[in-house]
Design a protein that fits this description.
By secondary structure, this protein is of the alpha+beta class. It has 4 domains: 4-242, Histidine kinase-like ATPase, C-terminal domain (Heat Shock Protein 90); 249-381, Ribosomal Protein S5, domain 2 (2-Layer Sandwich); 437-528, Rossmann fold; 532-656, Four Helix Bundle (Hemerythrin (Met), subunit A). The protein contains 21 helices and 23 strands. A hairpin with a 2-residue loop joins strand 19 (510-511) and strand 20. The chain is elongated and about 115 Å long. It binds adenosine-5'-diphosphate. Adenosine-5'-diphosphate is lined by residues 37-38, 40-41, 79, 81-84, 92-93, 98, 125-127, 173, 348. Its main location: cytoplasm. It is found in: Cytoplasm. Residues 1-352 are annotated as: A.
Length: 657
């Protein structure tokens, strides 16, 4: 074939116009795209070679070589993969076949800046070369064809390209980029290595560069990128070195990977110094194919509480790095998980927007969420510290592997338990599984180890609800007056002290058929736990107390929604509760502290008609002061502050004096 000039398909011409006329914030991705194509070409040869070993010719080792020529201002990426025939070069490099790139074309907005940004982030395969080159020469020979059947393809990225026959001894493809002036920084081994390490380290095939040596290098500044020597003094040595790790850990079979290797890999992707608590590595097959390698860290990062924090899962497509922090891959409440997801189905140029919409991604997200939950369930099952009597109690620890898991769930929970609770409000599909994973302190355990199942297993005869209380601190929860009657009757109450508890519990109304009941909301209803005699006594006391109650309501009408007699108190004179559907005073306080609007609801004051102080009210000359002291003390007891602390102090002092 003699030299011919052919026109690009209209779509290619349009794309090239954009690529060559835009400024990129992220030029360097061209290298990722070209190395990825080279890697694909090697994969294809490997595949075809399965049935036809002759295709390997005399070079069985597949590799990519990156070279540059400072004088000629060219950068060349050479692979010894499948290569292209003349017709293939015309077809593949002159039209857009790839569905991903077509998709991408469909998304172009016409706004040059926005479109350039899109290319800069995600690349457009081979055509990305024109981001840095004003001319590209491709020389190729398909594996199995004669050396005389090679092809040279040349284009400046405008309307057409040239093709001609060449003789090429080596099979495979060289992409020769004639760099534009503004891209000459890529004529530098250090720069190239840096970009390759960033994007292509996990390409499973070796990427080679020729070693260079300093000749007569003069030391100027030891801290600069050239090791302090005058640039220009580098000479090639003729020796080649592999500059990537050349092995995507997650693509190797589990049995070939040691725990140390898993831990090392975790450190490189997470920048965490500590070894992970556990991990799961699986190849998922079915409608969507992907590999997941997911880690649970041992320590929470300092910015865990930032819900906008970047997610820790990296997305790869066919071993090519696509993006960090792909938040579409896991729900926000699992933002502590680190790892890699490598999809076989997604297009290489998948954008964030596309990720959100993709059905494959949804299925990856569901699968990965389930995987994380199973990892946690497995840890929980093997943790003796979580009390064992419950329905989800400890299984027998038999193997060494089981022993290694001992205590890990407690450790995990201390770091990430509170984040996990966000899932109750975020992931309805997994709410039940999540509820089983929760642990709390209780009136029977200071340690945060009680599961709902443990609690249920210990419930009293006739008890119909799981009781809990939320407070700022464990001490405040434990000493809350609202617990008094529960303590007296020996009923366990879960003590919740995480800031998210109140919010999260809004989404969980029952566990395994048993309702959850806050002891600080509504009137206490101990149901069958209260005997008839007690009920009667309470009713009588309330009746006798009615006139005082009316006076109390009047005195406190600005502060309390209602005043009523309660049986929940034993030692304390009074406490505050909120209406059943109301926001707890603790949550309202938290919102206010965070500078947010909280509805101005007034609490209900409940008084203990048996208490000496309350008995004193009747006929007291200090009635008004006593009433306000009762209210303010109830507020203090639950960690709040009187509206007018000075007035409170004055009243107490007056009485003391
Ligand atoms: P994609 O690689 O996603 O299909 P590209 O625009 O990057 O899209 O490349 C178009 C086609 O050109 C490829 O599908 C492949 O057939 C061919 N090609 C590109 N680079 C090479 C290469 N290094 N070796 C062999 N074929 C290649």
């Amino acid at each position: 074939m003699s030299k011919q000039t052919l026109s690009f398909q209209a779509e290619v011409a349009q794309l090239l116009h954009l690529v060559t006329h835009s400024l990129y914030s992220n030029q360097e991705i061209f290298l990722r795209e070209l190395i990825s194509n080279a890697s694909d070409a090697c994969d294809k040869l490997r595949f075809e070679g399965l049935n036809n070993a002759a295709l390997f010719e005399d070079a069985p080792n597949l590799e990519v070589r990156v070279t540059f020529d400072k004088a000629a201002k060219t950068l060349t990426i050479t692979d010894n993969g499948i290569g292209m025939s003349q017709q293939e070069a015309i077809d593949h490099l002159g039209t857009i076949a790839k569905s991903g790139t077509k998709d991408f074309m469909g998304r172009l907005s016409g706004d040059q800046k926005a479109d350039a940004q899109l290319i800069g982030q995600f690349g457009v395969g081979f055509y990305s070369g024109f981001i840095v080159a004003d001319k590209i020469t491709v020389e190729s020979r398909r594996a199995g064809l004669k050396p005389e059947e090679g092809v040279r393809w040349i284009s400046s990225g405008t309307g057409d390209f040239e093709v001609e026959t060449i003789t090429r001894a080596q099979r495979g493809t060289s992409i020769i980029l004639h760099l534009r002036e503004d891209a000459e920084e890529y004529l530098n081994a250090w720069k190239l290595k840096q970009v390759i390490a960033k994007y292509s380290d996990h390409i499973s095939l070796p990427i080679l560069m020729e070693k260079e040596e300093w000749k007569d290098g003069e030391l100027i500044n030891p801290n600069d990128e050239n090791g302090g020597r005058q640039p220009g003094g580098m000479v090639k040595t003729g020796e080649w070195e592999t500059i990537n790790k050349a092995s995507a850990l997650w693509t190797r079979p589990k049995k070939d990977i040691t725990d140390e290797q898993y831990a090392e890999f975790y450190k490189t992707i997470s920048h965490d110094h500590e070894a992970p608590l556990t991990w799961a590595h699986n190849r998922v097959e079915g409608n969507t194919e992907y590999t997941q390698l997911l880690y649970i860290p041992a320590k929470a990062p300092f910015d865990l509480w930032n819900r906008d924090k970047k997610a820790g899962v990296k997305l790869y497509v066919k071993r090519v790095f696509i993006m960090d922090d792909a938040e579409a891959l896991l729900p926000t409440y699992l933002r502590f998980v680190k790892g890699v997801i490598d999809s076989t189905d997604l297009p290489l140029n998948v954008s964030r927007e596309l990720l959100q919409e993709s059905r494959d991604v949804r299925s990856i997200r569901e699968g990965s969420t389930k995987r994380v939950l199973s990892m946690l369930e497995d840890l929980a099952k093997h943790d003796k510290h979580t009390t064992g009597e419950g329905a989800d109690g400890v299984t027998d620890v038999v193997s060494e592997e089981d022993k290694a898991k001992e205590g890990k769930y407690t450790k995990f929970y201390a770091e990430f338990g509170a984040v996990l609770k966000e899932g109750l409000g975020e992931d309805f599909a997994n709410r039940e599984r999540l509820a089983k994973l929760l642990r709390f302190a209780s009136t029977q355990s200071d340690a945060v180890t009680v599961s709902f199942a443990d609690y249920k297993a210990r419930m009293k005869e006739g008890q119909e609800a799981i009781y809990y209380i939320t407070a700022d601190t464990l001490a405040a929860a434990k000493n809350s007056p609202q617990l008094e009657v529960f303590k007296k009757k020996g009923i366990e109450v879960l003590l919740m002290t995480d800031r998210v508890d109140e919010w999260a519990l809004n989404y969980l109304h029952e566990f395994d058929g048993t309702p959850l009941q806050s002891v600080a909301k509504g009137a206490v209803d101990l149901g069958k736990l209260q005997d008839e005699a007690e009920k009667k006594a309470a009713e009588e006391a309330a009746e006798a107390f009615k006139p005082v109650l009316a006076k109390l309501k009047e005195a406190l009408k600005d502060k309390a929604e209602d005043v009523r007699v309660t049986t929940r108190l034993v030692d304390s004179p009074a406490c505050l509760v909120v209406q059943d559907d109301g926001m707890s005073t603790q949550l309202a306080r938290m919102l206010k502290q965070a500078g947010q609007q909280a509805p101005e609801t007034k609490p209900v004051l409940e008084v203990n008609a048996e208490h000496a102080l309350v008995k004193k009210l009747d006929g007291s000359v200090h009635f008004h002061d006593l009433a306000h002291i009762l209210f303010d003390q109830a507020l203090l007891a639950e960690g709040g502050l009187p509206e007018d602390p000075a007035a409170y102090v004055k009243r107490v002092n007056a009485l003391l004096a």
